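Module 6 notes. Inverse folding takes a fixed backbone as the condition and produces residue identities as the prediction. Think of it as a translation problem where the source language is geometry and the target language is the twenty amino acids. Below is one complete input and output pair. Work through it position by position during the lab.
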């Protein structure tokens, strides 16, 4: 397998792991999809892949696949009172099984909205 001359020894594949094994693992991961989505979003959004955060419950460092941000105001125009920003937090998954999504009930004032996706 080709590798950089300054590749740290910790990055070298262990014995018994072949290039084919590595390629298969990549195909079954979300990384190819993540790369395609991130590149597509860069046309409009500021994109950061593998955005890190500390899990508030476990205090462990975790990452989100993609954080994409778009300012919904024009800096060259008269400055608005509010400066809305759209943040997209995206996880890219690969699975042979179907995905099932559960939505919580939304309580807005005294109204109850039930969300469902089918």
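Target side of the pair, the amino acids:
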């Amino acid at each position: 397998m080709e590798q950089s001359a300054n590749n740290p020894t910790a990055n070298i594949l262990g014995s018994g792991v072949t290039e084919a094994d590595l390629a298969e693992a990549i195909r079954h991961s979300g990384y190819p999809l993540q790369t395609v989505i991130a590149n597509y979003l860069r046309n409009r959004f500021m994109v950061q892949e593998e955005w890190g955060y500390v899990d508030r419950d476990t205090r462990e460092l975790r990452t989100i696949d993609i954080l994409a941000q778009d300012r919904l105001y024009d800096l060259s125009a008269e400055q608005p009172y509010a400066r809305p920003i759209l943040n997209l937090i995206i996880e890219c998954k690969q699975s042979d099984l179907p995905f099932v999504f559960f939505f919580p009930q939304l309580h807005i004032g005294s109204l109850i909205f039930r969300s469902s996706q089918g």
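Reference fact for the lab report: The radius of gyration is 21 Å.
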